[in-house]
Design a protein that fits this description.
The complex is a heterodimer of chains A (137) and B (81). With 137 residues, chain A is of the alpha+beta class. Chain A is 56% helix and 22% strand. Chain A is built from five helices and five strands. A five-stranded antiparallel beta sheet of chain A has the order 1-2-3-4-5. In chain A, strand 2 and strand 3 form a beta hairpin. In chain A, helix 2 packs parallel to helix 4. Chain B is of the alpha+beta class and 81 residues long. Helices cover 30% and strands 37% of the residues of chain B. Chain B is built from two helices and six strands. In chain B, strands 2-1-5-3-4 form a five-stranded mixed beta sheet. Classes of the chains: A alpha+beta (137), B alpha+beta (81).
């Protein structure tokens, strides 16, 4: 028979182990939980209404959407599905990364919509507001 | 139907109005238009940018409320990160 103290120690060990791994488990599953929220679902609906079918596919398969610049045919903006830098690509080469964000929290899908609308209808202001990080060779 | 969508942490808050009824002076439709106009002005004052979306046309930035728009999306103020 296992002594009581050994049982208590075993249980404590399991509790400590569970507490130690729970942040990692949360980090892994957080995006899936976020996707289940009503805010994310509403934002995803708007995103799918605004993107073209090709852009939706690109977002799903590649994790980013490419938005052509309305002012320059050689330039495209690569907007990631989740928060991060927007890459500026000219003639097939990344020349710059942009960091621009809303002042209040928005679901990820809404952030993609925000980038698309700003680039397509307010590009100068978008570039003026963004912090720019030039890509070196 | 016209629709105002205001982006927020809840996804987007929507307000719709019947453009045809508003044109003929239906009180309920006019009240909805006035409410949309009030929200539009309030969000613009906070620094939001407004975009008019019409099917088959590129998005267009607007400064004033347009009740004939099929959809208006208000995005919050942005800052460099």
């Amino acid at each position: 028979m296992i002594p009581l103290t050994q049982q208590v120690l075993t249980m404590l060990g399991w509790i400590i182990l569970a507490l130690a791994i729970s942040p990692m488990v949360w980090l892994i599953f957080q995006p899936y939980f976020k996707g289940l929220s009503s805010a994310e679902r509403r934002a995803a609906t708007l995103l799918h209404e605004i993107l073209t079918a090709e852009q939706c596919r690109q977002l799903a398969w590649r994790g980013y959407v490419e938005i052509p610049s309305p002012s320059s045919t050689q330039r495209i903006y690569r907007v990631p599905r989740t928060r991060g830098y927007v890459q500026v690509i000219e003639n097939g080469q990344a020349i710059m990364r942009l960091c621009i964000q809303p002042v209040e929290y928005l679901p990820d899908a809404d952030v993609v919509v925000l980038h698309k609308l700003m680039i397509e209808a307010n590009e100068d202001f978008y570039l003026q507001k963004a912090n720019k990080y030039l890509c070196s060779e | 139907m016209g629709m105002l969508r205001v982006m927020s942490r809840r996804g987007d808050d929507r307000l719709t109005w019947d453009q045809q009824k508003a044109q003929v002076g239906d009180p309920e439709a006019l009240a909805a238009v006035r409410e949309a106009e009030r929200i539009f002005a309030q969000e613009r004052a906070k620094g939001a940018t407004a975009f008019k979306l019409d099917p088959g046309k590129p998005a267009q930035r607007i400064e004033t409320f347009d009740e004939t728009a099929e959809q208006i999306v208000l995005v919050p103020r942005v800052v460099g990160g």
